[in-house]
Design a protein that fits this description.
Number of domains: 6
Strand content: 15-25%
CATH class of the largest domain: Alpha Beta
Distance between the termini: 69 Å
Number of strands: 39
Oligomer: single chain
Shape: globular
CATH architecture of the largest domain: 3-Layer(aba) Sandwich
CATH topology of the largest domain: Rossmann fold
């Protein structure tokens, strides 16, 4: 921070301008010789006016009005000197420590450090801001815009599930009150990042609103119901510092004793403790469901009393549930038009050990297919509350005109309501618009059955036939692509896009990854410094780094194979701002070998899918271009493309630059634990629905003050907090399958599988080993290994179970006495099949149980597009579920080329010999294939 000339109001000197070379003694005498200074020390990192007694009135009342106004002005001038000479200071952190914790009461102590202030020059004069309090979050909630900016602190607490509404909070100050004159900086309106609008918002100050923003020290700032369900997690917020705008006076106590009384005995309702709920499969939870039931609850692990609360478990009481009424772990809500695709996905998930239920909107309404959002949520809530085994994941199959999304409050910038699907999981008692759902939610925003089939085919291919791993560090799993933008024509970044990306990238480097930097800047820019003043790494300075990434670079990275494609910059309905990557560029994207990227599109509105149902007046900022209900925008196009994205996490509206940075940190802390050292666990969160909930839990904790802000420093040395939690939670959605795992390491492989049946027990033994010999050791073994037995004639599921860590297990078959086909799988992406009685129908030397063309001889098992169907029986080149005229055009385009899916006879080239085979397959579905046997036989 530059020491600027200081204007000093003085009745004897008038407006005296002191040069940058002034010193404190001269300032005190020249500026205000008549002022009385109480405890004001020489220049110090934490200038303060300290008064030890709360009853002292010397400072407040001893002076007449003129003297008091003059004193405040003088002290502010001294603060300007202290702050500007201290640069961007870092003060000791606010801390929350546990004094005692029991089932009935939690007592915490909030310790408050002496403030360090930095001065900010504005068009409305000099203001002071709290310097970085060791990552303390400043109050920047949108409801606080225009009020004086103060730090907040808080914590999340697990409350008893049997405690009712008997919770009380007491905040007791400890020690003498402290006072410090200051003119605090006003909370600024949040800024957004729509593509094409790069101007940084100007400083805003409304004196009338400002004076109404006073707070008392230790003031309770309200509570956030972070999670509701089998555990109740509540966020508590308080203002450690008070401020009275009229007096321009900060007040605080050295500490506060916070007592939360929460009578109750049970903190986790654990269904595994229900009598007759475990044991034999028909008694409730089988071995697979027990593992799924034990997965972490959203937000619970972040409660300050989690260790005690996790031990105080009980069986839920008052349940009117027949254990024989089985529920499903994966719930697919679909429009009837897409039920065939939903059923295919169901069969696939069942074979992986994830019980799945498909329900149509017509079944929900009992009549017409156009169900309302209320009808859909009520049905989900009823299903969730009336089944012993409940959903962990929910998929909405259909675009917004088929399955409505939820419209919430007005967007902060757009002339449209915020839209999102998180609302479908906010139905449990006590839940609000900021409560994290008890399950992961995703959507396939499709208009046709063919589009739905395409996305289902990609999911199945990714999970059944994972990409190969030639060498870690140069493969799909370890290739991460980061696209970002340095904003501004000068040497200092006007935003934090690049710095946020570099924070994540540096952590990934420590894990053995090397994300590609596809960064861009204006041609005349010379990037030197981050927004907070720190220098960019030497590797990012010109001419070493060109800052010229473009759409061609992004396309090349996707086509090479990248597990994560991440963008942090401006965006809009049609894609990314810088580097530019829009809907038109998708035609050049061609993913091969199932190397589909998971896309983190963290910008403005690039995740829109509700253009058919949003208000028709919704328009582009600046140009005024109206939304078009007939257009397929970027995110939907990328997801629907057969060789495009596996999933997209993005937002439906304009969003806050700052809030998006926080969300980015939450997402990547889930992928690479340890990015935020005070948050989360050592285990990665890989299922996409769970990952988005994890990131939303993180920003909820920041908003509650229970997590210190890790946002990059601003130009004034502060770390901004969450501006509009409700909006950020609402508008970010997962377009994709919430059960799919994001893989940044190759799955272990099953090299051989043996199945035998003895006395109605299937004995399964699979040999598993890592496919990656060069991966970091912490990448570890599969989460678990499931084995599902089927009737080989009908595809009916007979029994299922878990194998041990060595790949061995027995599956009781009940009264089944015939042969079985067994699918062995891990959630991480490895699968294998074998039969207790192997046969080879087509005589190609490959057993039917694992033949990708059961009825057509194809000894080489060539499957160019990796969809589980061999080329010999698969002319469905666009993977939409059947061979038609669309595939004919693709086939003609492949003639004369090598290594493509149109090579139906496997001779290495698409030619006239393949034309005859293609003609015979027109109008047919691909297969039959053993890898799709269960879905074909359902």
């Amino acid at each position: 921070m530059v020491r600027a000339p200081l204007t000093c109001p003085s009745p004897t000197l008038g407006a005296s301008v002191l040069s940058p070379g002034w010193h404190l003694p001269n300032l005190r005498s020249a500026c205000c010789p008549s002022c009385v200074f109480h405890g004001l020390h020489a220049v110090h990192p934490s200038p303060e006016a300290s008064m030890q007694s709360p009853s002292s009135t010397t400072f407040d009342n001893a002076l007449n009005t003129a003297q008091r106004a003059l004193q405040v002005a003088c002290v502010l001038a001294l603060h300007t000197f202290a702050a500007t000479s201290a640069q961007a200071q870092t003060a000791p952190a606010l801390t929350v420590t546990t004094v005692s914790s029991s089932a009935d009461e939690t007592v915490l102590r909030v310790t408050v450090p002496k403030p360090a202030l930095d001065s900010v020059e504005t068009a409305n004069g000099v203001f002071q801001r709290f310097a970085s309090q060791g990552g303390a979050t400043v109050i920047s909630d949108s409801r606080e815009v225009g009020f004086p900016e103060l730090p907040l602190t808080g914590f999340s607490l697990a409350l008893p599930v049997d405690g009712g509404d008997k919770t009380s909070v007491e905040i007791k100050p400890e020690g003498g009150i402290q006072r410090l004159p200051a003119r605090l900086y006003p909370v600024q309106p949040p800024d957004s990042t729509p593509a094409g609008l790069r101007d940084k918002p100007g400083f805003a100050f409304d004196a009338e609103r400002y004076k109404n923003g006073g707070k008392t020290p230790g003031q309770n700032l309200g509570e956030l119901p972070v999670f509701r369900g089998d555990a109740n997690v509540q966020g508590y917020r308080l203002a450690p510092y008070g401020y009275q705008p009229g007096d321009q006076l900060i007040t605080y106590y050295p500490s506060y004793l916070v007592t939360i009384k929460h009578p109750g005995k049970c903190f986790v309702a654990d269904r595994l403790l229900l009598r007759e709920a475990t044991g034999a499969p028909k008694a409730g939870f089988d071995a697979i469901d027990q593992r799924i039931e034990s997965l972490p609850l959203p937000a619970f692990q972040f409660a300050i009393n989690k260790d005690l609360a996790s031990k105080l478990r009980c069986a839920p009481t008052g349940l009117q549930i027949d254990p024989a009424v089985f529920g499903a772990r994966f719930l697919i809500v679909t429009h009837p038009n897409f039920k065939a695709a939903a059923d295919t996905l169901k069969a696939h998930k069942q074979a992986l050990g994830i019980t799945t239920r498909v329900v149509t909107t017509a079944q929900i309404t009992g009549g017409p297919a156009n169900a309302t959002e209320g009808q859909i949520r009520n049905w989900i809530a009823t299903y969730y509350n009336t089944h012993l085994v409940r959903p962990k994941w929910v998929l909405l199959m259909g675009d917004s005109e088929f399955l409505p999304t939820h419209y919430d409050q007005n967007n902060s910038w757009d002339n449209a309501l915020n839209a999102g699907d998180m609302w479908y999981g906010q139905f449990l008692p006590g839940a609000t618009a900021t409560t994290i759902p008890p399950f992961g939610i995703g959507r396939f925003p499709v208009d046709t059955l063919a589009q739905a089939n395409t996305i289902v085919s990609k999911v199945m291919a990714f999970e059944n036939s994972p990409p190969a791993n030639p060498f870690f560090g140069n493969d799909y799993y370890s290739r991460l692509t980061f696209a970002s933008y340095f904003q501004g024509s000068g040497p200092t970044d006007e935003r934090w896009f690049v710095e946020t990306s570099e924070i994540v990238r540096n952590h990934a480097l420590s894990k053995g990854y090397s994300p590609a930097r596809l960064y861009n800047a204006d041609a005349g820019a010379n990037p030197q410094n981050y927004n907070g003043g720190a220098s960019l790494p030497a590797a990012l300075k010109k001419p070493t780094f060109a800052w010229d990434a473009n759409s061609a670079d992004i396309v090349a990275a996707i086509n090479q194979g990248t597990s994560i494609l991440y963008h942090r910059d401006h965006g809009w309905w049609t894609g990314w701002g810088d580097p530019s990557f829009s809907t038109g560029n998708l035609a050049s994207v061609s993913v091969t070998n199932n190397q589909f990227p998971v896309v983190f599109s963290i910008n403005c509105a690039s995740g829109i899918f509700d253009n058919e149902t949003v208000n028709a007046s919704y328009k582009t900022p600046g140009s005024g271009t109206l939304i078009n209900s007939a257009t397929t925008y970027w995110a939907e196009s990328f997801l629907r493309k057969s060789d495009g994205a596996l999933a997209v996490i993005g937002d439906t509206r304009q969003s806050s630059t700052i809030d998006n940075n926080h969300l980015t940190l939450g997402l990547f802390d889930g992928v690479f634990p340890g990015l935020i050292s005070t948050f989360g666990t050592n285990s990665p969160v890989q299922r996409l629905g769970d990952l988005l909930n994890y990131a939303k839990s993180y920003i909820s904790q920041v908003a509650a003050g229970s997590q210190a802000s890790r946002h990059p420093l601003s130009s004034n040395g502060t770390r901004p907090g969450i501006g509009n939690l409700r909006q950020e939670l609402t508008i970010y959605n997962l377009l994709g399958d919430p059960t799919v795992k994001l893989r940044v390491s190759p799955p272990w492989q099953f090299t051989s599988l043996g199945v035998s049946v003895l006395q109605q027990v299937a004995r399964v033994r699979v040999v598993l080993e890592p496919t990656c010999k060069t991966c970091p050791p912490e990448l570890g073994r599969p989460e678990w290994i499931t084995a599902v037995a089927f009737d080989p004639k009908t595809g009916r599921e007979i029994a299922r179970g878990l194998l041990n860590s060595d790949g061995v297990g027995d599956i009781p078959l009940g009264d089944w006495k015939g042969d079985v086909l067994v699918r062995v799988a891990s959630p991480d992406g490895a699968t294998a099949q074998a039969s207790s009685n192997e046969v080879d129908t087509d005589g190609d030397g490959v057993a039917d149980s694992r033949d990708n063309c059961v009825a057509v001889s194809n000894k080489n098992q060539l499957d160019t597009d990796g969809d589980g169907y061999g080329n010999a029986c698969d002319a469905d080149l666009n993977n939409d579920g059947f061979t038609n005229a669309l595939d004919t055009g693709l086939f003609k385009a492949q003639l004369g080329k090598r290594g493509l899916a149109g090579d139906l006879n496997g001779d290495g080239i698409v030619n006239s010999l393949d034309t005859g085979r293609f003609s015979k397959l027109i109008g047919k579905v691909p297969g039959p294939s053993a890898l799709h046997f269960i879905s074909a036989a359902r």
